[in-house]
Each structure stands twice: as structure tokens, then as C-alpha cells.
Design a protein that fits this description.
Layout lengths: L6 E6 L8 H10 L3 E6 L9 H8 L10 H6 L2 H7 L2 E7 L1 H8 L6 H8 L4 E5 L3 H5 L1 H12 L3 E2 L3 E4 L5 E5 L3 H10 L11 E6 L4 E4 L2 E3 L6 H12 L3 E6 L11 E4 L3 H11 L5 E4 L6 E3 L18 E3 L3 H6 L6 E8 L3 H11 L4 E6 L11 E8 L2 E9 H18 L3
Parallel strand pairs: 1-2, 1-3, 3-4, 4-5, 8-11, 8-13, 11-12, 13-16, 16-17
Antiparallel strand pairs: 6-7, 9-10, 14-15, 17-18, 18-19
Helix pairs in contact: 1-2, 1-9, 4-6, 5-8, 9-10, 9-14, 10-14
Bound molecules: cytidine-5'-triphosphate.
The site of cytidine-5'-triphosphate (CTP) has 16 residues, from helix 12, strand 16 and helix 13.
């Protein structure tokens, strides 16, 4: 993920999520950006300017009327300095003021004075987000080309559940990196992603499943959307919120996943098989609960259809990316899958080590294609997802797809 050469003006407005700005400043700097922070009066009730000053290594500005600050880098100069303006968190009040062109404090004035692309990451109570006034303000901002990152969905500080959470710092950096230099790398590209495990029923109460959490596939869906793609996500049984802007279809079994993928496939430009699809399914599903009788029992299993290989064998076909989870001889097995299944690229991870794999939030991927290879991470699954999508976009362009 790269924000080298970017000068990010980070606006922080008042809301409990303002505490996340500290992590965000760190992440922006890790990605190579220079960061200057501007806070609203409200933001200072939640996080101190000193914290953000220390992390950004630049003075924090909070007032239009600060004579000494104006003597150093005046507000117009600051507006010109920025190559990107990111406001995170953006409160309902700030969104309203931006939508209506107010210039009554430093941050809103800077937004008016800057020609840099503006992105906002809303964070507020879910009722406030759903209110028609907020939705109208967001629609107005979008119609002017403002990027809106999130909000995410889930538990809120106020005890309610729903959309309104600030995206995580890594997601915001990924979203910003995906739209640098004013264009989204995957704009107009349709991406179909599978994620999570599949559950293969034995009888009405038992099934064969696996430990896939779906986090990698969901991170890919969020990153692809942030990079401008139109994303369809076919998800096995997982407990994850749908990333903003993603079209999601839930399935349970490998057979249902195959059917959903085939139905969604026409017109897709990229297919990413991140799901841990069951290789075998019970040959027969009992319609009543199986009672225990003998001392041991065997369940006859039949091979499932390989969805990835089926997609890769279609003509015309999208750019096809597979995943491989290996415990040993990673390159050998990954390259074998690349060739055997006719893939354009394969991302392999080592399972069985603490930082990588199924339930972890962190990941390292070894990526292979016919005449190349590279390593992504170790980093958060979100950051690795963004790097993988940049690589896919690059490889796809080179393949002339
Ligand atoms: N895959 C699929 N359909 C299946 C099985 C797997 O699309 N029925 C896809 C997965 O989404 C993943 C890749 O194939 O992208 C994983 O390959 P797979 O052959 O399932 O790996 P393993 O089962 O781990 O391989 P093996 O047992 O051959 O080592």
C-alpha cells in the first residue's frame, strides 16, 4: 500500500471515534504519506492535539484565528499544501456544514480553499446516519465527487448496532491508497469474490465444515470496492458484516456456491476464489437425524465440483485468481494448482503458524503466476488484500485483459 509523495491533510471532527485518529495518523505515515492534522473544537473533547502532533510530527491546527500559526503556515498555504484531504471521523454536523459550503471554522474553510480530492469517513449513531438530512447531505457531497469511505456496520459506542462505525485505520489507508492521483485503480471493473467456508450437511443437525473465517475474502471485497470496483461477494456461513457498497449473496454448501458463482459470472472481469470450498460432500443427506447404533460408522463422501477450475475453463473467462492454504512445500503445491486449474495467479499462505491463516487478522501471502512470484505482508488482512488487488490489477493489465 503506497501513499508515497502524498501530503494528507487529516481533518478530525468531534465524535467518540476521534480516538481512532491516532492509529490512522500512524498508518498514513507508515504508508509513506506526510500528515498534517486539523481538529474541530469538538474533536478536542475526545483526543488531545498533543497526541496527534506527536504522531504526525507536525503542529496540529485547530483555529482560524491563531496569529502565530497563520504566520508559520497560513490556512490558504495549508490548503495548497495538501494533495489529499481526508476527514475521519466526519460527524453528522461536519457533513452538513461541508454539504452547505460553510466556512466558519478552520477545517470547513480549508475544504473550501483546497482543490485536493476530498474523502470523508462518516462515524455517528446509526439513527443519525439513517436520518434523511444526513443521507441528503451525503448524496450532495457524493454528487460533487467527494469520496465516502464507509461507514462500517456493527456494535456502536452508544450501545446500538447498525451502520455508523468509523472504518478501521488500515481500511481507510487502503481506501485512500486505492484512489490516489484522482482515479480509482479498479474503476469500472467487476469483481466476483467467494469467501468463507462451506457447510456440507450430513443430516438435519450435523454438517462437515472447516475453520475458514471469511476475513480474507471480506477484506478483498472491501478493498476492491474502495479501489472503485463493482463487487459481488458469494459468502459461505460466516459472522461478518457486509462491506459498504458490496453486493452479497449468502450460500451454505459447495453446490450452492457453485450455482451462485455461475449465475453471477457473466460480465465479470476478475474472479477471486478465496472461499475454503469443501472438496468432499456426503454422498447422501439423511432427511431425518441419524441415530447412533453401531460402535462406529462411516459416511460416504463424494467429490464436489471444483468451482475455481470450472470458472477458469470457461470461454470467455475473467482473470482468475485462486487461493491455496498449505502446511508444507508451499511453492510446489501452489504452482501445481496454478497450472492444473488453469489460473492466472495464485495466492498461497502457510497455515499452522500463529500470525497467518484462518482466524488471524494478519496474513502473509506468497503469490505466484506463470513467470513470476512475490511476497505480500506480513500485514493486516485488509492491507494485504489491498496489495493483492493492486498486483491483480497490474498483472491483468499486462495480460491485456
Ligand atoms: N476451490 C473451489 N472449489 C472447490 C474446491 C476448491 O473453487 N470445490 C478453490 C478454492 O476457493 C481455492 C482453491 O480452489 O481458491 C483451493 O484449492 P484446493 O484444491 O481446494 O486446495 P486443497 O484442497 O487445499 O488442495 P489439495 O487437497 O489438492 O492439496
Amino acid at each position: 500500500m503506497c501513499l508515497r509523495d502524498e501530503r494528507v491533510l487529516l481533518g478530525v471532527s468531534g465524535g467518540i471515534a476521534a480516538y481512532k485518529a491516532a492509529e490512522l495518523v500512524r498508518r498514513l505515515r507508515d504508508a509513506g504519506a506526510q500528515v498534517r492534522v486539523v481538529m474541530t473544537e469538538g474533536a478536542k473533547h475526545f483526543i488531545t492535539p498533543l497526541t496527534l502532533q506527536a504522531l504526525s510530527a507536525n503542529p496540529v491546527r485547530d483555529s482560524l484565528w491563531d496569529a502565530s500559526a497563520e504566520a508559520a503556515m497560513g490556512h490558504i498555504e495549508l490548503a495548497r499544501w495538501a494533495t489529499r484531504v481526508l476527514i475521519a471521523p466526519a460527524s453528522a454536523d461536519l457533513l452538513a456544514r461541508l454539504a452547505h459550503g460553510h466556512g466558519d471554522d478552520l477545517l470547513s474553510t480549508l475544504v473550501l480553499a483546497s482543490t485536493a480530492p476530498l474523502a470523508v469517513a462518516p462515524a455517528m449513531n446509526q439513527q443519525m446516519w439513517a436520518h434523511p438530512a444526513t443521507q441528503a447531505n451525503i448524496a450532495l457531497l457524493r454528487s460533487r465527487g467527494v469520496q465516502v469511505f464507509g461507514p462500517g456496520s456493527g456494535d456502536q459506542a452508544c450501545g446500538e448496532v447498525g451502520p455508523g462505525r468509523l472504518l478501521e485505520a488500515a481500511e481507510l489507508v487502503a481506501a485512500l491508497a486505492g484512489t490516489v492521483r484522482g482515479h480509482a485503480v479498479l474503476a469500472g471493473v467487476r469483481v466476483l469474490i467467494t469467501a468463507g467456508p462451506t457447510f456440507e450437511d450430513i443430516d438435519p443437525v450435523r454438517f462437515i465444515g472447516n475453520r475458514s473465517s471469511g476475513k480474507m475474502g471480506f477484506a478483498l471485497a472491501a478493498a476492491a470496492t474502495a479501489m472503485g470496483a463493482e463487487v459481488t461477494l458469494v459468502a459461505g456461513p460466516v459472522a461478518l458484516a457486509t462491506p459498504a457498497g458490496v453486493l452479497r449473496q449468502d450460500v451454505r454448501s459447495a453446490a450452492q456456491m457453485l450455482a451462485a458463482v455461475m449465475a453471477a459470472l457473466p460480465g465479470q472481469h476478475i474472479y477471486i476464489g478465496a472461499a475454503a470450498v469443501a472438496d468432499y460432500t456426503p454422498a447422501q443427506v439423511a432427511d431425518k437425524k441419524i441415530k447412533k447404533t453401531a460402535a462406529d460408522m462411516a459416511v460416504a463422501l463424494a467429490r464436489t465440483t471444483d468451482i475455481l477450475a470450472t470458472v477458469a475453463a470457461r470461454s470467455p473467462r475473467p482473470f482468475v485468481v485462486g487461493f491455496a492454504a498449505e502446511t508444507h512445500d508451499l511453492e510446489h503445491y501452489a504452482r501445481d494448482k496454478l497450472q492444473r486449474k488453469g489460473l492466472d495467479l495464485i495466492a498461497a499462505n502457510q497455515v499452522g503458524c500463529a500470525e497467518s491463516g484462518f482466524e488471524a487478522d494478519c496474513n502473509t501471502l506468497q503469490v505466484f503466476w506463470a513467470d513470476g512470484a512475490c511476497t505480500l505482508g506480513p500485514d493486516s488482512k485488509v492491507a494485504v488484500a489491498q496489495q493483492l488487488l493492486s498486483l491483480i490489477a497490474q498483472r491483468r493489465a499486462q495480460a491485456g485483459a
